[in-house]
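Please, structure for the following, as tokens.
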Amino acid sequence: MIEKVSKYINPIQLEELYREINNCPHKLLGPHKVEEGQLFITYRINASEVTIIDKATNTEYSMLPYEDRGLYVVLVDGEAIRSYEIRTRYLDNTTITVVDPYSFDPMIGDLDTHLFRHGTHYEIYKKLGAHVITINGVRGTYFAVWAPNARKVSVVGEFNCWDARLHPMRLLESCGIHELFIPGVEEGAIYKYQIRTRDDRVLYKADPYANSSELRPRNASVVADLTNYRWEDKVWQKKKYKKDRNSLRKEAMSIYEMHLGSWRKHNNGTEDGFYNYRELAVEVADYVSNMGYTHVELLGIAEHPFDGSWGYQVTGYYAPTRRYGKPEDFMFFVDYLHRKGIGVILDWVPAHFPKDDFGLSRFDGEPLYEYPNPKMGEHPEWGTYIFNYSKKEVINFLLANALFWLKEFHLDGLRVDAVASMLYLDYGKNPGEWIPNKNGGRENLDVVEFFRHMNAIIQEKLPWAMMIAEESTSWEGVTAPAKTNGLGFLYKWNMGWMNDFLEYMKLDPYFRQFNHHKLTFSLMYAYSENFIQVLSHDEVVHGKGSMIQKMPGEYDDKFSNLRVAYGFMYAHPGKKLLFMGQEFAQWQEWSEARGLDWGILEYERHAQMQQYVKSLNHLYRRYNAFYANDCEAIGFEWLDCTHAELSLIAFIRRGTTKKNHLLVVCNFTPVDREDYEIGVLAPGTYTQIFNSDLIEFGGKGNGIVTSVKAVQEEYNKKPYKIRLEVPGLSFMAFRYNE
């Protein structure tokens, strides 16, 4: 029989198998229809006996060794065997019976490879990665990875003793994808890809499309099955799917930005003190709902090796970090918050990735996900690689990843990190360290196209999804629709306002009069984009101090300053975002290594600040004048912004009707202004609905009135005027009807 078989065995393929460089194992291994019947070939190292078992008839066929190097063959005539197992007895007398991995056809078709090569396979994550499936009644895991420059790729894991000789993958030459279905591999199996490079190096890589990972510092991928979770947020989803770009801009949006690992920590000796996603779901939902927030925004939870990166240097783009549980646990987190009426936004990082050996860096031995030229492909300041946005398969990886989080995990939006670093070729680089674009400019034209493509597709497929840009420059049209040559985002973080306003608030109140423009300038461009007013995590780390530390003055003055700061933020056009801990004036600046200082709420001023922010949130959501026209100039009008020497401002916020318009007054000095006159546009009664100087907020109880009456007397070019007592360092709001 060996002589008959020899003519069907390609000696080159066989030698490549022995040398562990064969990237087309299915041409050699598995079942083959030949002239004499069926030829079965398998590779079993250290075997003493190998048997083919016809599952239909239980007939057994003993296989013969071929060249005594681990290859076994048998030639079977008669009716074709359609389903079979291989039983192997090893030299140590252990016996293992498995279905042959090399008896299955590829699950990736021509349409898949065509779309992937063109960057438009928006569900490529359902093809690449590791997926628990059943084929012809056989349950196992289908593995597929893109590694076009690899000489050979094998799946290695606990299920094959990390032996790369046992499961070499088949290369689909048209697209550079390697694939293999391995029967018997179940959810929870730990694995990597062993990649042999063209220059004969051996790499062990985590799966770029894996849905789960080991807990760091371990870094292997873990087979996960995302189809098991049963969602219960149908009410939220039904409501969400009725929304679109225009309706979202008119909704209230008060975001609680949070880092899951340090919001709270256990003190019972558990791993790093981390709460599980399921534990967090209940506590976060209760707290955020009680505080009046509409959404939470999570610092990056895609798998990352280094805690100190806060999730912004990602190695597992399709995997929620194992620090807080399994993928279905994170699904529960989102699901539970939705059931409690809270939206969930995730920080997403398509700008760069770390150089860890097991990650995306030089994935198949060559620059694959990154630009090959260091002047394009590296961030000198961050020590990371930059994605190659000119490569369609890389674009597909990122586009599909955005859709993956929104669809598979029911997220309501993505905040895209470090957009400026993507848009500018010279970002963080010195002259000579970057390459101009084809027009000689500094703009990365590939990134512009990527954003337009991404946001257009998301707008088409998921019109309710909130795509938010953290963009720190004056790039025009960040939130203009992609079809009008904008970048297509729904919102942009207002970094300019944040920087100016914090610089203003840090000043001793006496000097604020000389920096009045830092307070008012943001209204010059407030409608150039759809903005979110942010006081984010970046402002309370690395020596910048917490929000309360930034405030000038003695102890009580700091709290008064912070109250008026938050009041102005909530009244300013734009949606709202405040980082965790700042709602109760955490004294220490934030660190990912420790939990928030919840114990500080035992002190009166901190508890009062928490109550103040809670009241602000509920005030904000109660009156649509604070949010309905955030993106329309009709929503805001100055009444008094010229008294720089007083550091006092007044303005109007308008809603969707002529009823319940709001007058806002902010005093940024500690000086009480008694009988202060403000010109107003409408007659009638102005009812006080908020005063930051209430005793319950830690104030002095000044300026408290039920209402004031406008008199018909021209003042400051307005036809009417009112008189108020304006407490020092205060924020007040009044309701009136035109």
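The chain has a mean pLDDT of 96. Residues 624 and 655 are 5 Å apart (CA to CA).
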